[in-house]
Amino acid sequence: MSRIDKLVAYLQESPTDSFLQHALALEYQKIGDLSMARTLFEKLLAENPAYVGSYYHLAKILETQDQIEEAVRVYEKGMEQAQLQKDHHSYAELRSAWEELTY
C-alpha cells in the first residue's frame, strides 16, 4: 500500500483531520501531481484557514504555474494567519517567499 493509499484510508476515518489532508497534498506534490496537490491545499485552507503550513506549499505550486498574483495573495493570507497565531517562524518563512516575488 502506497503512502497516498494509507493517507486516503486514514482520511476516510477522520475526514476533517487537517494534518492528514496536508500530508496527502504533500505526497501528491512530491510525485509531481501539482493539480491534485493544489486542489487538496485549497480545500484544506477553505475548511481550516488557520492551518498556516499549507499556505507556503500552495503558493509555491501557484508560482510554478506562473500564477504569481495569486501566489502573492496566498502568501499574504498566510502571513495574516501566522500573525493571528503569533507564529513568528511561519510568518518569517512566508514573508521571505513573499518578498522574493514582490521585490
List the helices and strands and how they pair.
Elements: H1 3-13, H2 18-30, H3 34-47, H4 53-64, H5 68-84, H6 88-102
What's the CATH H-level superfamily name?
Answer: Tetratricopeptide repeat domain
Element-by-element helix/strand order? HHHHHH
| Low-confidence segments | none
The helical percent reads: over 70%
CATH architecture: Alpha Horseshoe
Please report which band the strand proportion falls in: under 5%, 5-15%, 15-25%, 25-35%, 35-45% or over 45%. Answer: under 5%
Tell me the structural class.
mainly alpha
CATH fold annotation: Serine Threonine Protein Phosphatase 5, Tetratricopeptide repeat
User: How many helices does DSSP assign?
Assistant: 6
Q: Any idea what the shape is?
A: globular
Number of distinct beta strands: 0
Distance between the termini: 45 Å
* Mean pLDDT over all positions: 97
Rg over CA atoms? 14 Å
Q: State the name of the first-level CATH class.
A: Mainly Alpha
